Amino acid sequence: MPSRRRTLLKVIILGDSGYVNKKFSNQYKATIGADFLTKEVQFEDRLFTLQIWDTAGQERFQSLGVAFYRGADCCVLVYDVNSMKSFDNLNNWREEFLIQASPSDPENFPFVVLGNKVDVDGGNSRVVSEKKARAWCASKGNIPYFETSAKEGVNVEEAFQCIAKNALKSGEEEEIYLPDTIDVGSSSQPRSTGCEC
């Protein structure tokens, strides 16, 4: 297999329940175990590989601490629009990430929020309004917000386009040589954002 160069972006997904693995893993190629996946995203005529780490809300990841979070280019916070508890826990997940990852510029580190499961029960069991979620995102520095249905594929590609865009703005691009495997190295690039998705 010929080697190629592309940009690798590390994305951490946090929330009370898994987003990538349990909901639409058929769209992804598993690389190492079930909790580390890659997704290729085309953005501005370039190909990027998102290295996606999804905790699926599992406590076993808490023991990984700094090693798990280190080098992240973007953090995706996911909640279930049908569960107020999962929404209320977004702040805990955000704080946990900032503590563990210790980004050089925490105020401007790129986050993206996904309100998932908008398809459930035709939207009738929804308890968190889009307005409430957008207000929370605005209060945390205008975090980009998407309502998604991972199961139905609603807004999933759009969300990952925004995630790639945000991750790119988090620091200088790093071209990584990828032969047949992915280098899981870390980076301590300065971070900044300001993406309007």
Task: Give a verbal description of the structure.
The protein has 197 residues and is α/β, with parallel strands linked by helices. It has one domain: P-loop containing nucleotide triphosphate hydrolases (Rossmann fold, 3-Layer(aba) Sandwich), CATH 3.40.50. 25% of the residues lie in helices and 27% in strands. It has 6 helices and 8 strands. Strands 1, 2, 3, 4, 5, 6, 7 and 8 form an 8-stranded mixed beta sheet that branches. Helix 5 links the parallel strand 6 and strand 7.
DSSP strand tally: 8
Which range does the strand content fall in? 25-35%
Q: Termini, distance in Å? A: 36 Å
CATH class: Alpha Beta
CATH topology: Rossmann fold
Q: Helices and strands: which structural class?
A: alpha/beta
Q: Tell me, what's the shape? A: globular
Alpha-carbon Rg, integer:
16 Å
In CATH terms, what is the architecture? Answer: 3-Layer(aba) Sandwich
Strand/helix succession: EHEEEHEHHEHEHE
Mean pLDDT over all positions: 75
- Please describe the biggest sheet, giving its number of strands, its sense, and whether it closes into a barrel: 8 strands, mixed
Number of domains: 1
Organism: Populus alba x Populus x berolinensis
Family: Belongs to the small GTPase superfamily. Rab family.
Main location: membrane
Protein name: Ras-related protein Rab7
Helix-strand layout with pairing:
Elements: E1 4-15, H1 20-24, E2 29-32, E3 36-43, E4 46-54, H2 65-69, E5 74-80, H3 84-88, H4 90-101, E6 111-116, H5 130-139, E7 145-147, H6 156-168, E8 175-178
Parallel strand pairs: 1-4, 1-5, 5-6, 6-7
Antiparallel strand pairs: 1-8, 2-3, 3-4
